[in-house]
DNA sequence: TTATTTAAGGTACTGGAGTACCCTGTATAA
DNA sequence: TTATACAGGGTACTCCAGTACCTTAAATAA
């Protein structure tokens, strides 16, 4: 009846820690979760955790990556830029809604602590490697090939704009992002920016 | 040679605490500042502080309000929309840059700790969003009167866009927001959005 | 098989947040 | 002037983050 016959190592132990983290995250949420509690549930101690992750936020991000929902988004190619954008964002909304849920409150906030107040927007979707940005770039590329856009190149700021807008919308919308909000983003902001024929830099 | 003859109370003590907070904030920055250290410098103890402020962030915000810089921004009216926008943001940048400086790193992060990311952005631009939004509305109104814009009304989302962009830029810029970044925001995004002649909602 | 290296587990420590409790000086009211 | 209420000050406590150091189990190399 000893405590344990085997001493787990490497990946096995890491998995146990991440599983415990995921369990606790779902039980109590990010803010209440402590490293000590994770260690206890995983049947190990703080050291094993601190050897692998610098802080709670990184630990939880790992658990999220392993057990959390994965975005399953197809890049549309309907032959029309506006339609492509609409369909793409429609798919992204559910995932974003989860990432901003109460359960994860405090997580992104912590991730911001060390990287200056910075890159909130980038980091927010950094969890899936600038997925939004890459997809939008692809959609724009398709539009260019069709001749819908006049082969201009877009700045980083413009390429990040869709992610910024949609994340901001998901966040401020409290609940779910509506069709109308999405249409407004696309028609009032994105389309004018992507197809700026009228206005030229002085 | 006793420690102290008088026992300070109320506003006198509060001022001493805020002064100590401000001093320490400038010496070591927000992240390093501790309540205990503030108490020591103020010649009091933690209890007197915790009786007044719930946490470090709120204490520092109070000190900031009392001793920090105040924004002093004039709304320009040069007869040209783009110039107006340029001059306005130029003035706003110094203040925003201070609010997001290393010295204050961690402060906004802490202020957002207990709320979900949802309310985060909302709060983030609540810092100053109204001010920026109101000013931009005024600038747009001037442009309309001059006939620079075709009397269209702008949605909330569009009116909040300048604040969103400039705050995001200040946050992600690490150091100071440059002229170039500002020009990019105005020329690549704001001007096309405000003067969208080419693209029309389907 | 044995020796060596690595990392897990245990224990203990520092230091700050935040709370509790009590004593005492000070302002106010009686 | 004295009694009372309140808030400041002191001390001590719990909890957690994070680090240090030592031991021991397990993987690997010799």
From TrEMBL, chains A, B:
<feature type="DNA-binding region" description="H-T-H motif">
    <location>
        <begin position="34"/>
        <end position="53"/>
    </location>
</feature>
<dbReference type="InterPro" id="IPR011075">
    <property type="entry name" value="TetR_C"/>
</dbReference>
<dbReference type="InterPro" id="IPR001647">
    <property type="entry name" value="HTH_TetR"/>
</dbReference>
<dbReference type="Pfam" id="PF16859">
    <property type="entry name" value="TetR_C_11"/>
</dbReference>
<keyword id="KW-0805">Transcription regulation</keyword>
<dbReference type="InterPro" id="IPR009057">
    <property type="entry name" value="Homeodomain-like_sf"/>
</dbReference>
<protein>
    <submittedName>
        <fullName>Transcriptional regulator, AcrR family</fullName>
    </submittedName>
</protein>
<dbReference type="GO" id="GO:0003700">
    <property type="term" value="F:DNA-binding transcription factor activity"/>
</dbReference>
<dbReference type="GO" id="GO:0000976">
    <property type="term" value="F:transcription cis-regulatory region binding"/>
</dbReference>
<keyword id="KW-0804">Transcription</keyword>
<dbReference type="InterPro" id="IPR050109">
    <property type="entry name" value="HTH-type_TetR-like_transc_reg"/>
</dbReference>
<feature type="domain" description="HTH tetR-type">
    <location>
        <begin position="11"/>
        <end position="71"/>
    </location>
</feature>
<keyword id="KW-0238">DNA-binding</keyword>
<dbReference type="Pfam" id="PF00440">
    <property type="entry name" value="TetR_N"/>
</dbReference>
<dbReference type="InterPro" id="IPR036271">
    <property type="entry name" value="Tet_transcr_reg_TetR-rel_C_sf"/>
</dbReference>
